[in-house]
Design brief:
By secondary structure, this protein is an alpha/beta fold. The chain has helices spanning 18-27, 43-53, 95-106, 124-132, 143-151; strands spanning 30-34, 57-61, 69-70, 73-74, 88-91, 114-117, 136-138.
Length: 185
């Protein structure tokens, strides 16, 4: 499942086909966000709010805030404490911490289909363990940015999304300013 450019050193850029990213984002329904923060200025809070607004079930994981709520969602101390399966584990921690988080994700039953490491988070050894266990891995990417890029939302800010299409964008249910990757959710 690894792509030619994903093997190599930490300085080697990773390339993921748009079709793979689109498939992950359209089939994922539930996300455990490890490193979630209740601080509205933190990127994990912003990404969580965005994903919730796009119809994803996002479960925050933060041992310091366990038992509380972030954006109305109950916070868990660890992945092992989850009382429901998740489709994806998103890692908002540093690259060194990603290894043990991946191992914790692989111990879940059932395993998540995808492990997604945020921008600047990359752990090739952990990714290899996950892929050997049949779990897809995306590293050094942000699902908020990728969703916005592939849906066309990011072009509203004048950003070149590298996606050209003559198709009319699909509006998400419940919002004029929200686009989706496929059928309305």
């Amino acid at each position: 499942m690894r792509h030619e450019t994903s093997a190599g050193t930490a300085s080697t850029p990773l390339a993921y086909p748009d079709a793979l990213i689109r498939e992950i984002l359209t089939t994922t329904r539930s996300i455990a966000l490890v490193g979630a923060s209740s601080n509205p200025a933190r990127p994990s809070f912003i990404v969580m709010k965005y994903l919730l607004g796009r119809g994803f079930a996002v479960i925050p994981i933060n041992p310091g805030q366990a038992g509380g709520e972030i954006l109305g969602q109950r916070v868990y101390a660890s992945l092992a404490d989850l009382d429901q399966p998740v489709d994806m584990v998103e890692i908002f921690r540093n690259s060194a911490a990603a290894g043990s988080i991946v191992d914790e994700a692989l111990a879940l039953e059932p395993k998540p289909r995808t492990i997604w490491m945020q921008l600047s988070v990359r752990n090739d050894e952990a990714a290899a363990r996950a892929e050997a266990a049949g779990v897809r891995v995306v590293m050094d990417r942000c699902p908020k940015i990728e969703f916005g890029r592939l849906s066309g939302e990011i072009s509203w800010q004048g950003v070149n999304s590298r996606v050209l299409s003559a198709r009319k964008p699909t509006r998400a249910a419940g919002g004029v300013q929200k686009l989706t990757l496929g059928p309305k959710r």
